Amino acid sequence: MKKVVVVGGGVLGTQIGLIAAYWGNDVTFWLRSEGSIGRTEPKIKRYSALMLEDLKKAKALIGNPMGAYLYPHGMIKDWASITPEKIDELIAQGEANLTNNVHISLDMAAVIPGADIIVESMSENVEAKKAVYEKMRDLIDEHTILVTNSSTLLPSMFEKYTGCPERYLAMHFANTIWKNNTAEIMGHPGTSEEAYNKIVEFAGEIGMVPLCLHKEQPGYILNSMLVPFLNAAQALWANEVADPKTIDKTWEIGTSAPAGPFKILDIVGLETAYNINLMNPKTKEEGSVNYKIDKLLKEKIDKGETGVNAGKGFYDYKK
Amino acid sequence: MKKVVVVGGGVLGTQIGLIAAYWGNDVTFWLRSEGSIGRTEPKIKRYSALMLEDLKKAKALIGNPMGAYLYPHGMIKDWASITPEKIDELIAQGEANLTNNVHISLDMAAVIPGADIIVESMSENVEAKKAVYEKMRDLIDEHTILVTNSSTLLPSMFEKYTGCPERYLAMHFANTIWKNNTAEIMGHPGTSEEAYNKIVEFAGEIGMVPLCLHKEQPGYILNSMLVPFLNAAQALWANEVADPKTIDKTWEIGTSAPAGPFKILDIVGLETAYNINLMNPKTKEEGSVNYKIDKLLKEKIDKGETGVNAGKGFYDYKK
């Protein structure tokens, strides 16, 4: 049982803390203010309930040939030998762990010392991240490993503020972590092999598939492929070559994938797609395809059609 | 029952002719020489056998929740209401059609007049295509529609040689057409709406999902997305960020797809991937990522590790 501190109680921070608690670690969310507690507590309740619900549903998947695709991969380690009894045990243990192993604190000086692993999962704000690293640095134990869940920023940008550069690296999770159980693990040039390997091991302990990067790479592995792929799909749409549903159908039949690019965009959220497109300098050039993508996405966002969470994006998700 | 002429008896030409014959059309392969007949006849035998084999296997898929994914989509039109008896009927009819409806001819003047649809499926050689269009042009009936299956060349490059520009367009199929049943349909600016719509209809008649492009687009829909996607994946490999299996695993877990980019490359074949990379002007720049990809692919090709068909590519397929 490791002592894990999660810095930040956003969507992903909450999910990271909960999956660590589920697998028996002692987890404390460090939050900045009473206001943060008010926002994080409902998330903890909601995601704990969703996780346990998916675990209960997994019982009905035993023996179903699709079961191996549909069970919550981050919550069950050995599907091949699963039984209803084993799932009952996981449910009982999970309910206990998600209750007893989850704490919230506003007191940094009380929670950082003694932590085995600190997971920084704040929003993508460079200055805010620097500030929190500098606030923590003198409290971090010599054995503690500090990881960041940043999606877009590189560990080399922050290592000098941490006080423990050799024990600092990135571990990047996907949303709905208990189902999409990837942990992309990426050091900066000064990260020690020991710290890297310990995080690979920890990722496995908390039900993740560790995906090892040997170099710093903006976007890690997944987004390095998703971004050009989604851009190409959006270009076909913006250039009026074909409509989103035809483009999806083509990809789905052509590669046997369950979701084409516009279904993925609906899951990612159109605001995120919009922000990613904005990072491309060509988006400013009037008449460029990225300029056209910008306009089309903006139109949909203005109508509130931002994807699955909004009930409508490129597809309709209302019941 | 339409009279279909397939010009060229390569891998895809053969498959196009056979699926059209299977669905009851009268199909003639026009070939250039006795030598071509010697190469095409075994392909006709082999693909006919494979198609009927997959149809027979489909009986065991009825009632299997994975069945809807695995049945040969181009050979069965209404899976939802399928029964073993209906498959037996399709087998009997298919065996008859694949025998009785398939002809080979060296005599262009005998087969082109009276054709309802001519499918040009020659190799990607601009001069050879021009030559065959010019040879056919005075033989083509006024009602005939001429389609090209070219993957990389655009109909606007050839329309003026056809003698029937308003009835000329592209219909692009995928390999193993009886399973991967897409037909990307793309006109040039002078293609008539009537001819376009007739080909959309014909695609449906022969078990394909018609995918409509509203503009000429090099690479159609699928390759317009596959090329940048596969390039991004190969860049991660060439830059030593991660190894092919890790990259595949990341994509497969992250998007729930059955095959990551390197599995797709093994299916596409590494020679094709090599040729596509060569088309990128950056490949000539020493030290560029495409230069590195070129070297790595060349190494594997030299070792004979060219993909699924060779028994080894990024993965091992030997039994």
Automatic annotation (TrEMBL), chains A, B:
Q: Which Pfam families match?
A: 3HCDH (PF00725), 3HCDH_N (PF02737)
Question: EC annotation?
Answer: 1.1.1.35
Q: Which residues form the 3-hydroxyacyl-CoA dehydrogenase NAD binding domain?
A: 94-215
Q: Which residues form the 3-hydroxyacyl-CoA dehydrogenase C-terminal domain?
A: 219-317
Keyword Lipid metabolism present in the record's keywords: the answer is yes
Residues the record annotates as the site (Important for catalytic activity) are 172
Tell me what reaction this enzyme catalyses.
Answer: a (3S)-3-hydroxyacyl-CoA + NAD(+) = a 3-oxoacyl-CoA + NADH + H(+)
Pathway involvement of the protein, from the record: Lipid metabolism; butanoate metabolism; Lipid metabolism; fatty acid beta-oxidation
Gene Ontology annotations of biological process type: fatty acid beta-oxidation
Going by the UniProt record, its keywords in alphabetical order are: Fatty acid metabolism, Lipid metabolism, NAD, Oxidoreductase
Q: Record's Gene3D superfamilies? A: N-(1-d-carboxylethyl)-l-norvaline Dehydrogenase, domain 2, NAD(P)-binding Rossmann-like Domain
One MF term from GO for this chain? NAD+ binding
In terms of PANTHER family, this protein maps to: HYDROXYACYL-COENZYME A DEHYDROGENASE, MITOCHONDRIAL, PTHR43561
Q: What protein am I looking at?
A: 3-hydroxyacyl-CoA dehydrogenase
